[in-house]
Structures are given as structure tokens and as C-alpha cells.
Amino acid sequence: MEKVKYILASLVFAALLMSFIPSSDKKEIGTLTLQFNHLFNNEPLVFGKEYKNAHGEKLTVKTLNYFVSNIKITYKDGREYVVPQDSSYFLIRQSDAASKKIQLNNLPKGKCKSVSFMIGVDSARNTMDVSKRTGTLDVAGIAKGMYWAWNSGYIFLKFEGKSSVIPDSLSNNFYYHIGGFGGFKSSTINNIRTKTFDFPKPVSVRKNSPVVTINVDMAKLFQHKTDILLFKNSNVMWGELSVKISENYVAGFDLGNIDY
Amino acid sequence: MMKNRILVFVFILLAIITASSFIGMHDQKLLQIQMPTNFPPPVYDLSINPVTEEGFGLGRKLFYEPMLSRDGNVSCGSCHQQSAAFIQAGHDFSHGVDNQHGRRNALPIFNALFYKTFFWDGGVHNLDLVPVNPIENRIEMDEKMDNVLSKLNNSSSYRNLFKQAFKVDSITSKEFLQAFSQFMGAMISANSRYDKYVRKEGETLTAEELSGLRIFEEKCRSCHATDLFTDGSYRNNGITNDFRFDKGRQEVTLNEGDKGKFKVPTLRNIEYTAPYMHNGSLETLEDVLHHYTNGIKPSDTVDSVFRKKDGSLGIDLTANEKKNLIAFLKTLSDKEFINNSIFSETIDR
Question: Which domains can be identified in chain B, with CATH numbers?
């Protein structure tokens, strides 16, 4: 009986709290969707399909996962909206179409000038306790396989597949597991990449959500600032070369269509 | 105006009722963790994950649970044995699944609340994430976290224990790791004769031990600092100059200057934790002191603290000083801790 009373009281309290939210606020809220579109050499990326990188090496892809976090919208009038930290981590997976769409709710209405985000997980979150690693960051859940246990930190981008230029002894497999948040206590490699996408003309955030497409061309991983050859470097994880790779792949992130 | 006041009053009243209803639902029993007065402040935030009787008991059960390993043969307690102050007695390298050997000597795991980093190379920096490392290490337990959780979720007794400790119906990494942190966090070793002496609890040290303490303060304290007996830094103590198979801290920082550096270990309970050093290469405390006087191997990163005025490497200690130092080091043995049954494996508590 006591419990029932408490539950009732809680309900009343919750209802009371809700009523305090000014109704005018609801009108000021808009949504914006980021749609990630994966490509290889401007062609749609399909697992198992054969592509050729800039060095003429043939390859097929079986995994593409990466974290997108700390999304920030800048408005034409200078205002900024930062997606609240606790709901600001997304794991984009080629294998899961739903994961490639990020819908940002509760945006203040207005004309947006640009969007920026990190490809990776910020250093602060990489050192937090487990109560701050739920949902997308759960190392035994969604983030399974996207975390290094011995060198504690998230893998920011994982790109795997096969190429005939890689010896049979390695089962023709290539692995690029790129992470590194800059180090705890002593500094080390930092592969957190932040990119800003300026809209060609302001995007109006309204109730009917505009969809901003971000094209991600993975061919750039092999050639941008540094040439990465499957033949020479088919397995890159923790190490200096990973910095060159993240510099390369960040160049593959580009603004695509904006649809209303 | 009046209406507003009444509204505020009702609001506060309801808030109190609501809050108390939550407290009422919370029937886990909090365990008081005493922080030793001679220790630095804890690093781990227990207010996020308060130690409860249920959580601690569950953490202990998990600690001794071989199901956490791939082949069901290795538990955390296999390589961290209480009688050896939570290292594996007599092993330079511990055995993992399929009887494979690791490449580093197991570290003691007590007083974990007070450390900023974990493992010999400092690769993990939050206590909660510590268990993931041995569980997923191929030569230790060689399991995957999601698989561990599905095994636990398939066990009605574990589901029940997690429900009691965390009020959850299904087990996720958050509760699993928090249970571990509660158990390991409660493992505080601070009742050695030395502790009782420095805290003026009526303990006295012999002339020999006091002389050892003075030598310790002069010649060892710079690295084995504070009453944790480590400054938490990484140093190359010249135990080897062959870094081909283990580069130590460099593997984490990728900095050439960190090659062969390992965490300065605590000296607490050192009497029970032979063999010594990251590679378990020294059998006795006499061997350890001999290493520091005569055995430091030169390399580019060997710590400058060992450099004498004449340029040679080592710490000057006479035979008598060594004897007294060892007498002192044995005052760091915490018999209450290694015999405390609340940390022991027992069947059906």
C-alpha cells in the first residue's frame, strides 16, 4: 500500500514537472538529419564488391564502422547548438542502414550555416568510468570490437576486407583499426579528427527535418596526403602510420545533397 | 504571489515524497569503506558506484568465476591469489587458458582505488575497465565481453544476484564492471605493522627495522613514494636491456623514450609476492637488493636516479643496510588483509 502511494506521488510530481516546461518552447524546436553515404571511388560501397584503389590494388570490403561524436550546429546569426554530451555518440556501421542516419531533435529553430563533428571519441569520454559508457559506447554491446582493452580506448574507425595483393599466409585480409585519443598522463598519437561542413546556402531547421547527406569515400584512405598500399601495410592498428591513415580518410568525408 | 508560494510548497513536498520513495526502493546495504589516514585521497569516485554488500559479494563471486574464461578453467583468482597478496605464488609468468604463459609477472591488485593507471604499462586508466583487459587477452582468459555477459544472463542465479545488487533484469557491462570495482575497491591493504606504527596505533618497530626505514627514506622513497609505496611513474630499473619482446610503456605511448619502462610497483606485502620485477626474474628480496647495488643493466632509458657521481649505475648499500632494509620491507606485510575471509573464495556463502 505504501509503495502504491509513493508511485502515485511520483506520478503527480512528474506531471507537475512537465507542466513547468513552457509550451512556447515546443514551437522553437526543429530537427535535422545527417545521412551517411558510403562510397568507394564515387561508387556506392557494397560489401564483397570488387574495387580498385589509387595504386591499382583490387580489394573487397567486409567491415566499415566509425564513431561520429560531439556534433555541433552553427547558425547564420552566430548561435551554436552542441548536441548534449550524453546523447552525442554514434556508431555508424555500413552493415546497419539505420545506424547511418542520425536524427538530431530539439534543435533551436533557425538558419544553419554549418555542421561539425568528430570522427572518433573525445579524450575525456575515453577515460570515463563505465557508467558513462552505456548505449553506443558499451564495449560489450554496440561498441563491441570497437575498443582496445590493453591500451584502453575506443577504435574510431574500422575498415576491413580482402585483397589478392595480400599473401595467402595472411588469408588475403586487410585490417585498419584506427584509434588513439592523445594519451592519458603522457601524450601519444591522436587520431580524433574534427571536420566542419559549410552549407552552400543556409539550411533552415524546421519541423520537417532537412536531410544533410555526408558522403564518405573510403578510397581516400589509400591516397590523400600519404600513399597507403595494401601490399605494404595491410594491417595497421596502434602505431604512427595510423595517424597518416586518419589524415587520409578524413578527406573522404564530404558534404553531399541537402534535401528538405 | 500567494498562489506561487503554495505551488512552490507543494512542489517541495512532492519532491521530498518522491525522493523518499526512491530511497525506500533502494534496499541494498551500503558498506562503509574506510580510507586509511596515511594514504593519499582515492582516485576512483565511489559516489558513482557505492560499495554495497550485494555488489561486493557479487564482485567476489565474479572474481572467482572460471566461466569468465573461454575454456572455463581460469578465473581472476587463478592468477591473483589472496595468500600471495593477490599475485600468483611462485610464477614468473602466470598461466592463462590452454596453459599459455603471459609475458609479465602478475601485479598485486589491492589499493586499486588509489591508482590513476593500471597494469605494468599503464594502458588502462579507469578501475572499471581493468577486468576487460585480462578477460579479452588471448593468453589470459581469451573471452569476449559480450560472450561473458550472455553466459551470465543465461544463469538464473547470476541474474538474481545482479537484480539484488543493481536492480536490473538483464546484465550489461556497466553492472558487471561496477560489481568488480566494488569488490576490488574494497580491497584495501593498510594494516601492516608499518601502518600501525606511522598511524601511532601502539605498534613499535625494532632498531633494525627503524634503521631500514631510514635507509628506505633516503635511498628508495623517491620512486616508492607516499604510503602507497609507489609514485605511479614508469621507469626503467635496468632489470633487462633486451626489449625485443617487451617494450613496456613504449607500447602504449609509442615514445622511444619510454622503451623498457614499467610502472613502479607498490612494495606493500612484498614478502608474499615473489618472484619480483615485471619479468619475475628475481626470486628473493636479497636478489632484488643485489640487483640495485650490482646488477643494473645499462640502456638508453635506464633511470637517472641510479646514476652515481662517478657515472656508474647502482645504489650504494652495505651488507648491514641490506639486512635492515629487508627487515623494514617485511613490516609492510599485512597479515590481516591476506587472511581476511571477506576476500576469499568460498562455496555457497
Answer: 53-188 (1.10.760.10), 193-333 (1.10.760.10)
